[in-house]
Amino acid sequence: MTAYRSLTEEEAIAYARNIPNLFPEDADLVSREIGDGNLNLVFHITDRGPSGKSIIFKQALPYARVVGESWPLTLDRARIESEALILQNELCPGFVPEVYHYDTDLALTVMEDLSSHVIMRRGLIVGERYPEFARHIGTFLARILFLTSDLALNPLEKKRRVKQFLNPELCKITEDLVFTDPYFDAETNEFNPLIRDAVEKIWNSGKLKLEIAKLKEKFLTQAQALLHGDLHTGSIMITKDDTKIIDPEFAYYGPMGFDIGAVIANLLLSFASQEGHIQNSEARASYQAYLLQTIEELWAVFEQEFRDLWQEKSIEPSSHVPGYADDYISRLLQDTAGFAGCKMMRRVIGLAHVADLDSIEDLQLRADAETLALSIGQNLVLERTSINSIHDITDLVRRIQLQEA
Description:
By secondary structure, the protein is α+β, with helices and mostly antiparallel strands. It has helices at 9-17, 76-91, 120-125, 133-147, 155-164, 168-179, 196-203, 206-221, 256-277, 281-313, 324-349, 355-358, 363-382, 390-404; strands at 29-33, 40-47, 54-60, 63-64, 68-72, 99-103, 108-112, 118-119, 225-227, 236-238, 243-245, 252-254. Strand 4 (63-64) and strand 5 (68-72) form a beta hairpin.
């Protein structure tokens, strides 16, 4: 008999009082449920007394909140998230929220409050710029992906971690929503009716679906490194000088390019959405140029950090074979492009869109932005094997934008 129950706000407060060294004994605690995601309850608990301390309770629900109890989910994802955050903080300190406590029975993680930060997606929608983001995310991705891979780990330790982070139920969500459902007339799909012709062209493209199948195979079989698994701009809390990556409940061992591609895809979704957010053409072009520059900078930081780690931390004998590092990184960039393309198309056609696009009230303007996103996504998938530098990706985006204008 499980001890699990979903907490009320009052129960969350009572629980918080019993966690040692978290709040003063006389703390005047208040709670509000702030979860706006698809899967979990999230409580923001604050001491209204002199300490002013605040924390976050994140409790996994036994079903997908976005759908309801008809879509059951494992509670083990809460363990995976907690352990992923702890490991990520060990390998790249300061880039994830600190975990204070984890309760297995309640599938509950108690962690650092990031109320001083904003969700990056919201900032991008209103045209904010984050000068440190490219350096931060490039460093985070390089360190986490390299240091959890066969390049840096004893093979036995690597395989132990693969087992630790087995996450079949949440991986199945990704497999379906990113690599399967958007490419046929699935019941879960939802899209702007004004783009139906563009969507049906995707459904009818055997060439595209063949390349998607190859990328799905990589996602299913290539246990390169520990992934965040859902690294979009809604999973990044940010200020002008600080970046925190949250919500790694989809973490598992998979292909490195999937995480990098997810970040780039979301920057490109923002790029496409600006067609409906910034009316002044010069201001829009300036902000879109900033987004492409961010993509170029994050890859440059990632590649340099990854190469430095390769030289300093690699224990795999074959890593010293001349040319292997160059080949590895070249294949990684091509995977990144392909996965970015899949993530872009999925967010336009499939379940769970992005606010960047959905917040555009004019359906025709939204359709224009969505069509641009679909075109970029398709071309990233189809042309990925000819991509040799990050500039090939940003040049591709500029070319598609001109074609769609």
